[in-house]
Amino acid sequence: MSTLEIHAVSRYFGASAALETFSLSVPAGSRTAVVGPSGSGKTTLLRLIAGFEFPDTGRITFDGVTLADETSAIPAHRRVIGYVPQDGALFPHLSVAANIAFGLDGHAAEKQRRVDQLLEMVSLDRDMGRRWPHELSGGQQQRVALARALAQSPRLMLLDEPFSALDSGLRVSMRKAVSQVLSDAGVTAILVTHDQEEALSFGDQLAVLRQGRLVQAGAPKDLYLRPADEETAFFLGDALVLPASVEAGWARCPLGRVRVGEGESAGRARILLRPEQLHLSPAGLPANSADGCFGTVVGSDFGGNKCTVTVRLDDAGEADWGGGEWRLPVRVSALDSPDLGSRVHLFASGQSHLFRP
């Protein structure tokens, strides 16, 4: 198995940089998700790796072999890299079996055996091979596109937002299925997406792109809990960022006291909390108000099994926090959702993440 190395790659279109000094290492057999807003350079990155575009500066190597640099490039058809586009791009005039077998060498019987293996690998019945692309659901079409890409036994699979056109429930099941297929086949994979949940759940590694530059890369959990900056924090999910004063392992903020990491230096900061870290209890229960605060429920947004209630904090408008009123959203179980006007105790669990000025 092979490691993909991208070294300071830039790609310009006129005066605009679609990708600028981008570097990333993708370990052999791993799954990496690249996430970023539209126009951040995600698809350009995939096209450079696949060989559909060429870098203006920098170098791309795979298994120690240079795929492309500033002076030369291996053609796309010789890279043995699979590519699954957003819409699947199946040939409408070919059957499912013919789509999968497209480009395969060997006798008809050998091709059919390989097609049957691939259909089974992507959890489709062999009888599906006789159908035409327009007779398939969106999820089935994406499975066929994946089988076609796997037919060439690629060393690396590139997935360009392949689930974006599917319904939300199908997206989740397809993502899990594709991830399992690639893992079972031992194929290194890169998925680009603008969907944060998809990016966080797909891979062993997550890379965040912004305006053509790599902002941060690492384990998904690390990026979610310890993002490089506030913009990344909000891009990767709902976030609460509060002004704070740090001292002796604690941050004092409008929420009261919140733990910070060991060894954090004293001083002003802004702290990050994720919604799942906030908790409510009725104000009448015993509580240590130093490790939280009291407030009043002033809003409620019912969302089925989960509700988001808005709590107006008591005495949080002191000059240290800029004055004014503080209202915080808190997710609660629908069964435990407090009524409007209820007095509650609000506190945070776990550690907060610091952003220094």
From TrEMBL:
Keyword Hydrolase: yes
Keyword Nucleotide-binding annotated: yes
Ranges where the ABC transporter domain occurs: 4-236
Record-listed E.C. numbers: 3.6.3.30
Record-linked Gene3D superfamilies: 2.40.50.450, P-loop containing nucleotide triphosphate hydrolases
Broadest EC class assigned to this enzyme: hydrolase
GO terms of biological process kind: quaternary ammonium group transport
CDD domains in UniProt: ABC_Carb_Solutes_like
Molecular function terms from GO: ABC-type ferric iron transporter activity; ATP binding; ATP hydrolysis activity
Top-level taxon: Bacteria
Keywords: ATP-binding, Cell inner membrane, Cell membrane, Hydrolase, Ion transport, Iron, Iron transport, Membrane, Nucleotide-binding, Translocase, Transport
Protein name: Fe(3+) ions import ATP-binding protein FbpC
Organism: Pseudomonas knackmussii (strain DSM 6978 / CCUG 54928 / LMG 23759 / B13)
